[in-house]
Amino acid sequence: MTDYSSLRRKIIGRIVFAFLTPPFIAVLTAFFAGFIQWPDAIAVLSSPVAVLQLALMTGIALILGMVLVSVLQKSREHEKHQTAAISALKGFIPLFLLISLIHLLTGGMVFIHAAGIESQLMGTAIRIILLAQIGLISLPAGAMIDTILIPYATHLPLDRKSFSVPLKAKLALIISFVSVSAYLYPMGLRIGDQAMAGIEMGVFDLLGSNIVPLVNLVLGLALSLSVLNSAITKPIIALTQRIHVAKNHDYRMADNPIFRDELGLAENEFNELMRTISDNMSSSKVFLHELENSSHSLTSMVNEITASVVQITASIQSIDHQMTDQSAHVTETSAAVEQIAKNVESLSANIDLQVENVSESSTAVEEMIANISSISKISSDAKDLSNDLETTSRNGLDQISDLRQTMDRIAANSESLQEANKLISDVAGQTNLLAMNAAIEAAHAGDSGRGFSVVADEIRKLAETSAEQSKTISNNLKAEADSVNTGVLQTESAEHALVDISAAGKKVLSIVDSIETALHEQSSGSKVILQSLNSVDEISTQVRSGAAEMKSGAGEIVTSIRSLSDISERITLSTGEMSEALKEIQQAMQDIQEQANSNNEEVQILSREYDKYTLS
User: Fold this and answer.
1) Taking the complete model, does pTM exceed 0.90, yes or no?
2) How far apart are CA 70 and CA 585, in angstroms?
3) Architecture of domain 286-611
4) Which residues make Cβ contacts (< 8 Å) with residue 559, sequence separation at least 6?
């Protein structure tokens, strides 16, 4: 964790040092150059303007240091302050150039005022010297502070808006200011001597008289930049390119470094680091291939084991189903055998009962043989009665036929009477109509037709009476016709009944004949049955003995079946436990297979990532 209190002290101390040292350096330079004496130097440093300047610079330095520390702290708490912090840290060199300009104006004025020099040329020379000295001190101080602050902000992102001065530019500026300072020292001294001697010359004359220092300045700058480029810039660029190549996944060894200085040592250490990384990655790649092969082998083994487990599970399930079916069959067989045992017991009891029944049947058959002769006599009497019934039925059928013909004639006469009654009803209606017409005509005749009106009224009443009687007769005739029709139907029914009775009599006669024949046959069969019953009695005795043996064997079978049922239940329970265990094994195999597939995918991803690197 960053110690911000220590960081604050470092930042503020270096800023104050960079702000306060240029005035002292400028005064000391003027003293050692012979421009001022020791008392004048003390007078410059102790003047009120110098004190005010130092106080002002100290205040600015303190405020700037606290602002920088605050920005650096906030940059860790909020992302929007990060770019501002980087810009502030990278902007020290332009800041110190600005401060150098302030020192130039204020320091030069203090120096001129303290030394009491009025010459314009002398003031210009002093300002140039102050500028060189201030730049010489400010630039290294800014670079130093910039270098100190950067490690504290390595977590901050650098964007394109951040201002940063390359190392080559920093060193070039430092060397340039040193060279300019080296050139301006003798130039300033010469200008001072000329000013003391009262010699005045133009700018070109001034440069011409100082051509040798100017040439030395140009050559010094060229030589310094060449040395800087070959000794510092090229090794740094080479190391940067090597790092860029490594960033692009190329870890092959580079050529041995040309330089034997610190930068060459750094490049050599970097090559050793790349070799170590390459060796480690090569070993890791070999191990990765072995791991990939192991992962494939593990996947194949898991697939085979899973297939075997599935097959075993299917076999156990088949055994379980078979044992379930067998248990059901055993249960059914046990029930059947027990039922057989019960049936054997029942059979034994029935055989005992059968023996008794056979004995009783023998007695009954003997009695039946005696009864058959009695039934034969009764059958003969029934045959005679059947013949009498047939004769009586035939006579009744003839009488019914005559009755039917009589009923048909009555029905025909009833229809004739109905037609006559209808004619009477029609005549009564016409008579009533004529009576009404006569009454109308009598009414037209007045008193002369009154007697005729009475006759017409009587005729009308007679016609109405005739119509009413005709209706009564019609109703009676209809009722008689219905009765006759009913009688006809009943006669037909009676005729059919007599026909059926006659047919039944014939059938009864035939049946009686059959019964008589059957009785003769039954008499013979009963004798045979009696002999068979005696044989059945003997067989029943043998069956009784066999049933006892079957009962004993059925008991032993039931005991064996119960033992088999217990064994089947234990096997079913064991197969159930094995099935559950195989399910757990199958689930574990699935988990292992999923993990193996996941490992295989990760190994392939790592292998693809390793393939991106070029190793030595």
Assistant:
1) no
2) 63
3) Orthogonal Bundle (1.10)
4) none
